[in-house]
Amino acid sequence: MSNSDKDQFLKTSPLAIIASLRDLETQDIAVMVSHARGQFVTKVLAVLPESHEWVLDLSSVSHENRIVLEAESLGVVAETAAAKIEFTLNGGLREQTWQGLPAFYAPLPASLYAIQRREYFRVNTPLSLEFSCRGTLPGYGDFCFQVKDISLGGICLYANKAFTGTLQPGTVLRNAELDLGMFGSFTLDIQFVDVMVNQVLDRKGDTQSQTRFSFRFPMLSAPQERDLQRVIFGLERLQHERRQRVR
C-alpha cells in the first residue's frame, strides 16, 4: 500500500489513538515491536491518558529489553480482525513496575494508522515444520493435509495427490484439527472456498499431482484469534531470523 493510500487511515486525534490502543488492551492482541537489531512480541497492559503514556509487557529475554530501552526508533504493529494498527515510537521508553511487575512505559504516539481490513496478511509455513490439518471431507473421507500458509482469515492446505471428490463452496468442516507444531494445536471450523489441482515436479523430476485447498475461518473466538495471531507473529520471526542468517 502506498503512503498516499495509507493516509486515509491516519489517526492524529488523541482520543482516537487512545481508543485504538485500548482495543488492543481489551482484546489482548499480540503486538510486534521492531527495532534495528530485531523484534519481539508483547501486549498492551494499560493505557494512561492522564500521563499520556501506555504500558506494555517486557520481553522474556533481558538482553532484548536493554536493546529496546536504548533504541532510537521502534516500529509497532498489531492486527485485529477489523484493522491493522501501525505506528512509530521515537524512543522515550522507560522501565517501571505495573501492578507489581516490571513493564515498559511509552509515550502515546502522535499518530497511528488503523488500516481497515480488506485482505488478511498470509504467512507461509516452512516445509521443515510439517504443520498439518486433519478432518473429514464430504464424499472423500478423513484427511490429513499440509498447511501451506495461514492468516487470521483462513488457511491454505496442500495434498500430494489429485482431489477427485466434489466440495461445494461454503461447506463448513466442523472441528478441524490444526497441528502447528511448536505453536500448539487448535480445533476450529473451516469453510471451503476453492480447490485447484496442479502438476508439479518432485525431487526425482517426475510429474505428480498436487491439490491446493483454500479455506476461511467462518468464526473465530477472541482467544482463538489471539492465539493464531501469536502463531503468525512467531512464523514472521522465524522468517526474519532465517533472512538474517542468509545475509
Report on this model:
Residues 116-234 form the PilZ domain. It is found in: Bacterial flagellum basal body. Belongs to the YcgR family. The chain has helices spanning 3-6, 14-26, 62-70, 222-246; strands at residues 10-11, 31-35, 38-42, 44-48, 53-57, 74-79, 83-89, 94-98, 101-107, 112-116, 123-124, 132-137, 141-150, 154-159, 172-179, 185-201, 207-216. It has 247 residues and is α+β, with helices and mostly antiparallel strands. The protein has 2 domains: 3-116, Electron Transport, Fmn-binding Protein, Chain A (Pnp Oxidase, Chain A, Roll), CATH 2.30.110; 123-246, Thrombin, subunit H, CATH 2.40.10.220. Strands 1-10-7-6-2-3 form a 6-stranded antiparallel β-sheet. It has a 6-stranded antiparallel beta barrel with strand order 12-13-14-17-16-15. The mean pLDDT is 85.
